[in-house]
Fold UDP-glucose 4-epimerase.
Amino acid sequence: MKLLVTGGAGYVGSNVVWALHDRGDEVVVYDNLRQGHREVLPGSVRLVEADLADAAALDAVLAEGGWDGVLHFAALSLVGESMQRPFFYLQENAGLGFALIDACVRHGVKRFILSSTAALFGNPDTTPITEETRIDPGSPYGESKLMIERALHWADRIHGLRYACLRYFNAAGADAEGRSGEDHRPETHLIPLVIDAALGLRPEIVVFGSDYPTPDGTCIRDYVHVSDLAQAHLAALGRLDEGSVTYNLGSGTGHSVLEVIRSVERVSGVRVPMRIVERRPGDPAILVASSARIRAETGWAPRYTELDEIVSTAINWRRAHPNGYGNEG
Ligand code: UFG
C-alpha cells in the first residue's frame, strides 16, 4: 500500500511507520517536526516537513496520487494545556483535521485512520470502557478528537471515505529493537517520568493523589504497548473494505500509579524516589478499555500483556537515549 502518515515522526506515529515499513508498504511521513524527530524514521521513508495548516503543501503531496490511505496522528495532545487554550486546541486539532479530511476527499483517498483517544469518555462510571460507553469528553482535547470522529462519519456517508477511529488508552513502551521510543518535550506521561527517576535523570516522581476510590488510592490506567497499537492500525486498515470501524484499544488490564512505580523498580533494580502530592485536576480514577470489538472483528490481540514487559522496552530505549532524540552528539 502507499500511505501518507501525518505526525509520523511522533511517538505512536513512528511506531506505526516502522510496522508499515516492515511489511513493505510505501510510506510518506508528513510532519512539522514540532514534536516529531527525524532520526526516528526508517532511512528509506520520505519526510515532507510541513504543517497541516500549509494547505498548499498538503495539496501538493496528495496530488501526487495513488494513495491507498491516510493515517492521521499529527495533533496536540496535552489535556491540561487544552483546558488553558481551548480554542487553540479545537482549531489545531479539529479545524486542521477537517481540512485534512476534506483534502483526502478531494484527492480521492478511500481510507483514513484516526488516532483517537480515551479522553472521549471523560470520567466514566463504568469499567471496562466499551465503544458503547457514553461519550462525554472532559476537555477540549477530547472534544477535538470527537469532532474529527464525527466529521469522518459524514465523510463516509456522503463521500464513501472508509475510516477507522482508534481510541488509544495509555500508549506505553518502545519498539523492542529500539528503533523508536517515547521522547515528548515536555514529558508529562507517567512511565517515562518514573523511568527517569529510576535512572537518575530526574530527582523523583511525584504521585498525583493517593485518595482515589481504588485499592491503593492511586489512579488506574490501561497501559498498552505502542507496538501492539501499531499492529492494531494494520488490522484496522485490513478491515476497512468491509466498512468503517471504531475501536477502543487497550490491553484490558488496569495498573495503578504505585504499581507502575513498583514495576519500574523491579525491572531496573533501582528504588524510585517518590512523593505523593495533590490530585492533578481532571484525572479520572479508573480508565480501562474493553478491546473486545477489535479482537472479535480482526483477531488483533496485544502481545505485551505484562506491565513489566512494557516497562522493560521503555527502559531499554531510555538507557540507549538518555538525552532523547537530537541531543546525542
Ligand atoms: N501521574 C502521576 N505523576 C506524574 C504523571 C502522571 O502520578 O508525574 C499519574 C496521573 O495522575 C495519571 C497516571 O499517572 O493517573 C497516568 O498519567 P499520564 O499523564 O501518563 O496519562 P493520562 O492517563 O493522564 O493521559 C493519557 C494520554 C492522553 C489521553 C488520556 C486519556 O496521555 O493523551 O490518557 O484519558 F488523553
